[in-house]
Amino acid sequence: MQVGEVLRKKTSARVVTVGMNETVGVAAQLMRTSNISALVVNDVVCTEGNTAVGMFTERDVVRAIASQGAAGVNLKVSQLISVQRLVACSSTDTLEHVRHLMNLHHIRHLPVIDNFELSGVISMRDVSAAFDEITAGPAQTAA
I want to staple 73 with a disulfide (CB 3.0 to 4.6 A). Which of 25, 55, 90, 112 is the partner? Predict the structure, then answer.
């Protein structure tokens, strides 16, 4: 199964993003109101639209608070993400490849980028549910 198939089946395909110059507090509020645990970080300096440069997760919020206390909410998102190398996949990648990337990099969310544009986000939960669906087979999923 390919990533694109999983994205098409997701009930909420809306991708929530945050600018790299926003604060941890703003990012945390976005995650809370959207009921999600990760945001795609956009490079707001780019002149031709927004470019995905990283992921900001609940782990980053915890890291900010643990290192700075309450003042951690005022840190910029850019101070907590690694922009050197964005780990991403495309909609034509297999779930096996995505699972390998997630395990290799110890991450739970991957931006899906096709033709240099953000198509969605796939999570470890999405991958796990897809594998469950595959192993259950058509007889059990119809029941």
Answer: 25
| CA proximity to 27, closest of 15, 45, 41 | 41
**Does residue 3 contact residue 98 with C-beta atoms inside 8 Å?**
yes
Query: DSSP characters for 73-106?
Result: GGSBGGGTS--S----B-TTSBHHHHHHHHHHHT
> 3-state DSSP call for residue 39?
strand
Structure tokens that stand for 58 in this block: 């609940």
**C-beta pairs of 36-39 under 8 Å, 24+ apart in sequence:** 37/108, 37/109, 38/108, 38/109, 38/121, 38/123
For residue 125, list its beta bridge partners: none
Dihedral over Cα of 28, 125, 2, 130: its sign: negative
| Nearest alpha-carbon partner for 42 in 53, 30, 56 | 53
Strands 109-114 and 117-123, bridge-based pairing: antiparallel
What does the block give as tokens for 27? 């990012």
* Beta-bridge partners for 76: 23
